[in-house]
Specification:
Radius of gyration: 30 Å
Strand order of the largest sheet: 1-3
Order of helices and strands: HHHHHEHEEEH
Helix content: 40-55%
Largest sheet: 2 strands, antiparallel
Number of strands: 4
Shape: flat
Number of helices: 7
Distance between the termini: 40 Å
Structural class: alpha+beta
Strand content: 5-15%
Length: 218
């Protein structure tokens, strides 16, 4: 791949001439050259070749963006570290000690509120902003700038408006005889019949979608 790109970019040879010199198929040479071009954004093979070409042509040399130079190379009394990009890792699973602390705190909080608000309703929810589709290969996770070696979870990221949000809610009451004036939706565990009906519905929808695709292709 190095030889193909060098002969093409430096020596300005055609793929037919490269085939004669290297003994490879011209189609394979073209594919290898185009793949190296695509890899340029990932700064792997073609970035290395760019340095080689720059050495052969002293007037031409690759250079990084000014902002990248500042992030990686600039140092002063306040900024004495390199700023790098990374993806947040998943939070560690709760151990037994952490679960016990949360349980004790929940019991204490419930007792405190029972002294003043005997008919209190606790509502807890978890909200996650979700974008439709995905254009990266990081599982939908975004890159974050932070000092090298620092914990990514301690640095904020720019929050774009979500296309939709998924909210999971749960509620409990300290009063077992609590009455509600507003309508309330209750979730119950699905029975086997409901699960089978849902499975059949999904399979039917998938078959219909496959038939539509097959008709369009024919």
């Amino acid at each position: 791949k190095v030889a193909i790109v060098t002969l093409r970019d430096v020596n300005k040879l055609t793929f037919l001439q490269i085939t004669t010199k290297l003994g490879v198929d011209d189609k394979a040479a073209g594919q290898a050259f185009r793949k190296a071009k695509r890899d340029a954004m990932r700064q792997n093979t073609y970035y290395t070749l760019a340095k080689l070409i720059a050495a052969l042509k002293p007037k031409q040399h690759p250079r990084r963006l000014t902002i990248i130079n500042i992030m990686y190379d600039h140092r002063d009394d306040v900024h004495n570290y390199a700023i790098v990009r990374g993806v947040r890792t998943k939070k560690p699973r709760l151990d037994d000690e952490a679960r016990e602390l949360r349980r004790d705190y929940s019991h204490w909080l419930k007792k405190e509120f029972n002294l003043h608000f005997p008919r209190l309703i606790f509502v807890c929810y978890n909200e996650k902003s979700t974008a439709i589709g995905g254009t990266n290969n990081r599982g939908g996770k975004r890159l974050i700038s932070r000092p090298r070696g620092a914990d990514l979870n301690k640095f904020a990221i720019h929050a774009d408006p979500a296309k939709f949000s998924l909210i999971v809610c749960a509620a409990t009451s300290t009063d077992t005889n609590c009455e509600m004036d507003q309508p309330c939706i209750l979730w119950e565990q699905d029975t086997n019949d409901l699960k089978e009906a849902l499975t059949n519905k999904v399979l039917t929808a998938n078959n219909k979608a496959k038939e539509k695709v097959h008709k369009k292709q024919t």
